[in-house]
Write a structure and sequence with these properties.
The complex is a heterodimer of chains A (553) and B (206).
Chain A (H helix, E strand, L loop, with lengths): L1 H9 L9 H4 L9 H5 L4 H29 L10 H37 L7 H23 L13 H5 L4 H28 L12 H33 L12 H35 L6 H14 L15 H29 L8 H24 L1 H7 L3 H31 L5 H28 L13 H31 L49
Helix pairs in contact in A: 4-5, 4-6, 4-17, 5-6, 5-8, 5-9, 5-10, 5-15, 6-8, 8-9, 9-10, 9-11, 10-11, 10-12, 10-13, 10-15, 11-12, 12-13, 13-15, 13-16, 15-16, 16-17
Chain B lengths: L11 H36 L1 H8 L4 H26 L3 H31 L15 H36 L6 H26 L3
Helix pairs in contact in B: 1-2, 1-5, 1-6, 2-5, 3-4, 3-6, 4-5, 5-6
Chain lengths: 553, 206
C-alpha cells in the first residue's frame, strides 16, 4: 500500500490519479510490473491481452496503410512486387491470428465471463496466464519474421508456394501461428470448463447472457478446429525443413490436401471471429433499447448451429481448385444453410429494437454499424457461395471486400462497441460520449468508402494480391485509399479519448447504461474477487425494464 | 496441503470435477490433432491403394506388434495405478505408474530402432545414404508414417515424463490428487488409443 500511496503523493498537484473506487478494485493493490506479469486475475490478464493486441493491430494497420498507399497509382511506386507481397502477408497473419482471433474472447471474454456468470475467476487462472505468455511468445516469432525480412506467402500459406518456392521466413511465421494456436486451445478449454462448472447458483443455461453462449460456441471451435491447423502447419514446416513431400506433387504429394486441412480450421476461424462479435451485439442491443431480447433461445441455438455448420463448409474455398463438382455442389448448399442462423440473429436484434426506448449512445451506434456491415458481408457471402458467381469473382477484390465486411466491419466494429460499452466497468471512468459517437459514425462511413468500391473493382475483374493494375481501376482504388484514411482516423480517435479518460474521465457509476447482467451489480471497476458473496440469480436474462427495487440497481 | 482448494471454486468437489472435465476437453482437442493425420492417411490409401499396401509391407511388423503389446500393457498398469491411488494405496500406485513409464521408454526404444532400420533401408524420405522408393506413393506413405508416428512418439515422451513425475510425487507426503493421477492416466490412454488406430492403418494395411 505504501507503494500506491507514494505514487499518488508524487503527483498530488495533478488531477486525482486514482479514485477510491479504483484503489479498492483489481486495478489497485500491488501495481508493480512484476505483480501484473505474474497475475492470475482474469481481469488483469484481459488488460494484458488488450495492450498486446492493440500493439499488433497497430503493426498490421501500418502494413494495410502501405498496401493502400501503393494502390493509389496503377504503377509500382512505393513497394516492389516482393515488398507488396510481404506487406499483405504480414497484414493478414497479424490481423487474423494476433488481433481478430484473440480480440473479443481474450479481452472481453476473459474479463466478463466470470463476472457474467457470478464466478470469482476462470476455472484455471494459471492456465489463463500461461495462454497469454504463449500468445506473446508466438507474437515474438511473428515480429522476428518481420524483422528478418518478412514472408511472402499470404496469410493462407498455400502450398506448394509456402513449402517449396517461397524465400521468406516461412518457418518463423509458421511457428508463430503454431504457438499462438496452443494459446487459443488453452483459452478454449478454460472457457468451456468455466461455463460448465462455475456458474453461480440460479445461473441456469437459460439465464446465461448471450455473450456467454457465443463464447461457449467459440470455445468449442477453438478446441476442435485449432489442432487441425496446428498439424497442418507442422506438415508444411516438415516439408520445408526435412524435405517431406506431403503437399509436393513432384514427390507424390497433394497440394489440395493442404487447402482441405487449412480451411477445415480457417473457415470455422471466421466464426471464432464473428460469434463473439454477435455476443457483444446481443448485449448492446437490449441495453440500448431497454427491452428484453427477442427470441433468446433462437439466438442461443442459432449460435450453436453456426458453430456446428461452420465445420461443414470449408470446401467453398476450393470451388476453382479442382474439387469435384459434386463436392462443390454440396459445399455450396451447406454454405447457403449457414446464412439461416445468421439471419435469425439479425432479425432478432432488429425485432428487439421494435418499440424500444432507444438510447442513441456510442455503444449502440457501434452495434448498429455492426448489423449493417454484417448484413452486407453476409449477403455477399451468399453470392460467393453460389458456384457460378464464385467462378467469376474468385480471387478478386470482391472476395477481399466480402471478408473485410465480416471481419473488420463485423468483428472490429463489435470489438469497439464492446470497448465503449464495458469501458466504464473495466476502468471505472467514463469517456467522452460525443467523441464516441463521432468515432462510431466515422468508422461506419470510412469503412464503406474503403471497401464498397472493392466490390465494384472485384466484379469488374481486379484480382487480389497485385500491386499494379490497369489505369481504368484507379478512381475506385483512390476512393478506397481515401476511405482507409477516414477509417484510420476513426480507429485513432478512441485510442486518444480512452487514454484521456484514464486521467480526466468522470468516475463511472455501477451501472451507467441501466443494463441487466451480473457484471453491472459490482462496483466499477470490480474488486479483485469480483463478488463479495456469491450471487444467487433469480431473474431471467435481459429482464428489462429494470425496476427500481431490482437487485441489479 | 493436498486438498488445496483454488480461488475460483466454491468447494473442492467442484474443483475436482472441473479438473477432470478440463482434461476431457483437452483430449478432444488432441483427438482432432491426430484426426487430421489419420484422415490424410485414409486419403492416401484411397487414392494410392497399391503403393500403400506395398510400402506397408516394408515396415517391421514384429516391432510394431511388440510395441502395441507394450503400450496396451502400460495402459493397464496406469489404470491399476489410478485405482490404487483412489483407494489410498499410494505405494502400489507409485510402482504401477513407474512401471508404465518404463514401458513407455521401452516403446520409444523399439520405435527408435525401427527408425534406424528404416534409415538403413533407404525408407527415410529425403535423408540417408540412399533413397529406395518404388513410386511417389511409396514415398508419401513413408512421409505419413514418419509424421504420424513421430507426433505420437512426442506424445509418448510427454506422457512418460508426466507418469514418472507423478510416480515420484507419490513417494512423498504430498501425493498428486486422485483426479490428478486419473487425468494423467486419461492422457496416457489417449496416447494408447491413437496407437491402436495408427498400428492397423500403417502396419496391417498390407
Amino acid at each position: 500500500m505504501s507503494r500506491a500511496g507514494m505514487h499518488d503523493a508524487a503527483r498530488e498537484d495533478l488531477a486525482p490519479l486514482r479514485t477510491e473506487a479504483e484503489a479498492a478494485s483489481y486495478l489497485g493493490g500491488d501495481t508493480s510490473l512484476k505483480a501484473w506479469l505474474t497475475t492470475t486475475d482474469h481481469k488483469r490478464i484481459a488488460i494484458l491481452y488488450l495492450i498486446t493486441i492493440t500493439c499488433f493491430f497497430a503493426i498490421a494497420a501500418v502494413a494495410a496503410a502501405l498496401i493502400r498507399l501503393e494502390l493509389l497509382t496503377p504503377q509500382a511506386d512505393l513497394l516492389s512486387a516482393e515488398g507488396y507481397n510481404r506487406a499483405f502477408t504480414i497484414h493478414g497473419i497479424i490481423m487474423v491470428w494476433f488481433f481478430l482471433i484473440p480480440s473479443i474472447p481474450n479481452v472481453f471474454g476473459n474479463f466478463l465471463i466470470p463476472l457474467m456468470i457470478g464466478a470469482r475467476d476462470l476455472a484455471f487462472p494459471r492456465l489463463n496466464l500461461a495462454s497469454w505468455y504463449i500468445f506473446v511468445f508466438g507474437g515474438l516469432f511473428t515480429l522476428a519474421a518481420i524483422v528478418f525480412g518478412g514472408v511472402d506467402t499470404g496469410w493462407t500459406f498455400y502450398t506448394p508456394l509456402s513449402s517449396t518456392y517461397a524465400n521468406g521466413n516461412v518457418v518463423l511465421a509458421l511457428a508463430a501461428v503454431f504457438i499462438a494456436g496452443w494459446s487459443s486451445i488453452l483459452t478454449g478449454v478454460n472457457f468451456i470448463v468455466t461455463i460448465h462448472k462455475l456458474r453461480a447458483p440460479g445461473m441456469t443455461w437459460g439465464r446465461l447472457p448471450l455473450f456467454v453462449w457465443t463464447h461457449y460456441a467459440t470455445a468449442l471451435i477453438l478446441v476442435l478446429a485449432t489442432p487441425v491447423l496446428t498439424v497442418t502447419l507442422l506438415l508444411v514446416a516438415a516439408e520445408r525443413i526435412f524435405g517431406l513431400g506431403i503437399f509436393n506433387p513432384a514427390l507424390g504429394g497433394d497440394p489440395l490436401l493442404f487447402q482441405h486441412l487449412f480451411w477445415f480450421y480457417s473457415h470455422p476461424a471466421v466464426y471464432i471471429m464473428v460469434l463473439p462479435a454477435m455476443g457483444v451485439v446481443s448485449e448492446l442491443v437490449p441495453a440500448a433499447a431497454h427491452k428484453k431480447l427477442f427470441g433468446y433461445w433462437f439466438v442461443a441455438y442459432s449460435t450453436l448451429a453456426i458453430a456446428f455448420l461452420g465445420f461443414l463448409v470449408w470446401g467453398h474455398h476450393m470451388f476453382v481448385s479442382g474439387e469435384s463438382m459434386y463436392a462443390s455442389t454440396i459445399f455450396s448448399f451447406l454454405s447457403l444453410i449457414v446464412a439461416v442462423p445468421s439471419a435469425i440473429k439479425v432479425y432478432n436484434w432488429t425485432a428487439t429494437l421494435y418499440k424500444g426506448s432507444i438510447a442513441l449512445n456510442a455503444p449502440f451506434l457501434f452495434a448498429m454499424g455492426f448489423i449493417g456491415l454484417f448484413v452486407m458481408g453476409g449477403l455477399t457471402g451468399l453470392m460467393l457461395a453460389l458456384l457460378a458467381i464464385d467462378v467469376h469473382v474468385h480471387d478478386t477484390y470482391f472476395v477481399v471486400a466480402h471478408f473485410h465486411y465480416i471481419m473488420v466491419g463485423g468483428a472490429v466494429t463489435a470489438f469497439l462497441g464492446a470497448a465503449h460499452f464495458w469501458w466504464p466497468k473495466m476502468f471505472g471512468r467514463m469517456y467522452n460520449e460525443v467523441w464516441g459517437r463521432i468515432s462510431a459514425v466515422l468508422i461506419f462511413v470510412g469503412f464503406n468508402v474503403t471497401f464498397f468500391p472493392q466490390f465494384l473493382l472485384g466484379y469488374m475483374g481486379m484480382p487480389r494480391r497485385y500491386h499494379v493494375y490497369p489505369p481504368e481501376f484507379q478512381t475506385l482504388h483512390d476512393i478506397s485509399t481515401a476511405g482507409a484514411g477516414l477509417l484510420g482516423l476513426g480507429y485513432l480517435l478512441p485510442l486518444i479519448y480512452f487514454l484521456y479518460s484514464f486521467r480526466h474521465g468522470e468516475p463511472a457509476p455501477v451501472n451507467p447504461w441501466d443494463a441487466t447482467g451480473l457484471e453491472w451489480t459490482v462496483p466499477s471497476p470490480p474488486p479483485e474477487h469480483n463478488f463479495e458473496e456469491t450471487p444467487i440469480v433469480l431473474r431471467d436474462p435481459y429482464d428489462y425494464p429494470l425496476s427500481h427495487d431490482s437487485s441489479l440497481r | 496441503m493436498t486438498l488445496a482448494r483454488h480461488e475460483p471454486f466454491p468447494d473442492i468437489a467442484r474443483q475436482r470435477e472441473a479438473d477432470r472435465f478440463g482434461m476431457v476437453v483437452f483430449l478432444a482437442s488432441e483427438a482432432m490433432l491426430f484426426g487430421a493425420v489419420v484422415m490424410g492417411l485414409f486419403a492416401l490409401r484411397t487414392f494410392e491403394p497399391a503403393a500403400f499396401a506395398a510400402t506397408s509391407q516394408r515396415l517391421n511388423l514384429v516391432a510394431g506388434s511388440v510395441n502395441t503389446a507394450v503400450l496396451l500393457t502400460s495402459s493397464l498398469l496406469v489404470a491399476i495405478g489410478a485405482e490404487a491411488r483412489a483407494s489410498d494405496r499410494a505405494a502400489l500406485a507409485k510402482w504401477m505408474l513407474a512401471a508404465a513409464a518404463a514401458l513407455g521408454l521401452v516403446f520409444l526404444v523399439i520405435k527408435g530402432s525401427e527408425y534406424v532400420q528404416e534409415y538403413g533401408e533407404g525408407l527415410m524420405p529425403g535423408v540417408g545414404p540412399r533413397q529406395d522408393f518404388a513410386t511417389p506413393g511409396a514415398r508419401m506413405f513413408m512421409d505419413g508414417y514418419f509424421i504420424a508416428t513421430g507426433l505420437h512418439a512426442l506424445h509418448v515422451t510427454i506422457g512418460v515424463v508426466m507418469l514418472a513425475g507423478c510416480a515420484w510425487r507419490l513417494r512423498g507426503d504430498d501425493p498428486p490428487s486422485i483426479v490428478g493421477v486419473g487425468n494423467i492416466g486419461l492422457y496416457w490412454h489417449l496416447v494408447d488409443i491413437v496407437w491402436v488406430f495408427l498400428f492397423p492403418i500403417l502396419y496391417l494395411s498390407r
